[in-house]
Design brief:
Number of helices: 3
Number of domains: 1
Distance between the termini: 11 Å
Structural class: mainly alpha
Helix content: 55-70%
Shape: elongated
Largest sheet: none
Radius of gyration: 14 Å
């Protein structure tokens, strides 16, 4: 199963690292988690703005992965 449905988009990663990082943790592991969570939030907001509920998108990814594994 590809991880593309679980990973944040490149656009969200670029946006997250361009934002002010004054609230970001200084520890490198905590920073990585912070960036990952921020990118997921950016992607979710973008999906909702496009008019597709996040639940439907997630269900489509799961259904797509199930069809490929058979």
């Amino acid at each position: 199963m590809p991880y593309s449905g679980l990973m944040p988009s490149m656009e969200a990663i670029q946006q997250a690292v361009r934002e002010p990082l004054s609230q970001a943790p200084r520890d490198h592991r905590e920073f990585a988690i912070y960036i990952f969570e921020r990118t997921r939030a950016i992607d979710q907001a973008r999906t909702l703005a496009e008019g597709q509920p996040a639940q439907e998108t997630a269900e489509a990814v799961v259904a797509s992965a199930g069809a490929r594994s058979k």
